[in-house]
Design a protein that fits this description.
The structure holds two protein chains of two kinds.
Chain A (H helix, E strand, L loop, with lengths): L2 E3 L4 E5 L4 E3 L2 E3 L5 E7 L6 E5 L10 E5 L4 E6 L8 E8 L8 E3 L3 E6 L1
Parallel strand pairs in A: 2-11
Antiparallel strand pairs in A: 1-4, 3-8, 5-6, 5-9, 7-8, 9-10, 9-11
Chain B lengths: L3 E4 L2 E4 L5 E7 L5 E7 L5 E9 L2 E4 L6 E3 L9 E3 L8 E8 L7 E2 L3 E5 L1
Parallel strand pairs in B: 2-11
Antiparallel strand pairs in B: 1-3, 3-8, 4-5, 4-9, 5-6, 7-8, 9-10, 9-11
The chains are: A mainly beta, B mainly beta.
Chain lengths: ~110, ~110
């Protein structure tokens, strides 16, 4: 069965320090992976998707098929990065609509 | 993202009652989705619709029903068959199944 695991419920980092949010998945097919973010009092929104190879707000995520991971990284955390982050996997072979979400990681960046 | 409106924000239900959660979008999106979120868990897909008059079960469809009679509307009915309906419900939409999803603010359902 498909599964997305985010092992850290809470990640507390200091401003300016690197931050890495872990995401591991189990899926036998070719995955499409996403990171969604929810800032305080805002809606859940897409942060980045694997296929775009983008860097959004300084965040990057690399798909490691060997380790089945899609960790989210930022070299220098900012206070505005404090939010809830969800890793999501699309496991349908013919569409990306059916997403499997991880349980989320709360990031707190302290000055 | 003001294009997706969920109502009401809070909803209370007596046991044995059906209740319908509203989701409307003015983004002209073809695809719409319903998720359930419980504390400490991620979002779980209840139902999704690729296009008007079509919908498919997600991972946890039992005790729920949906309709998609109009492109902009995708109401979710929580039936009395759903034994543990207390949760936070999120609606989302996307241009099609291959595009990123846009989420509403959610509806929190509680049992009286």
């Amino acid at each position: 069965a498909q599964r997305v695991t985010q092992p850290e419920k809470l990640l507390s980092v200091f401003k300016g320090a690197p931050v890495e949010l872990k995401c591991n998945y189990s899926y036998s097919g070719s995955p499409e992976l996403f990171w969604y973010v929810q800032y305080s009092r805002q809606r859940l929104q897409l942060l980045l998707r694997h296929i775009s190879r983008e860097s959004i707000k300084g965040f990057t995520a690399d798909l490691n098929k060997g380790e089945t991971s899609f960790h989210l990284k930022k070299p220098f955390a900012q206070e505005e990065d404090s939010a809830m982050y969800y890793c999501a996997l699309s496991f349908s072979t013919d569409s990306w609509g059916k997403l499997q979400f991880g349980s989320g990681t709360q990031v707190v960046v302290t000055p | 993202d003001g294009g997706i409106t969920q109502s009401p924000k809070y909803l209370f239900r007596k046991e044995g009652q059906n209740v319908t959660l509203s989701c409307e979008q003015n983004l002209n999106h073809d695809a719409m989705y319903w998720y359930r979120q419980d504390p400490g868990q991620g979002l779980r897909l209840i139902y999704y619709s690729q296009i008007v008059n079509d919908f498919q079960k997600g991972d946890i469809a039992e005790g729920y029903s949906v309709s998609r009679e109009k492109k902009e509307s995708f109401p979710l009915t929580v039936t009395s068959a759903q034994k543990n309906p207390t949760a936070f419900y999120l609606c989302a939409s996307s241009r099609d199944l291959n595009q990123p999803q846009h989420f509403g603010d959610g509806t929190r359902l509680s049992i009286l």
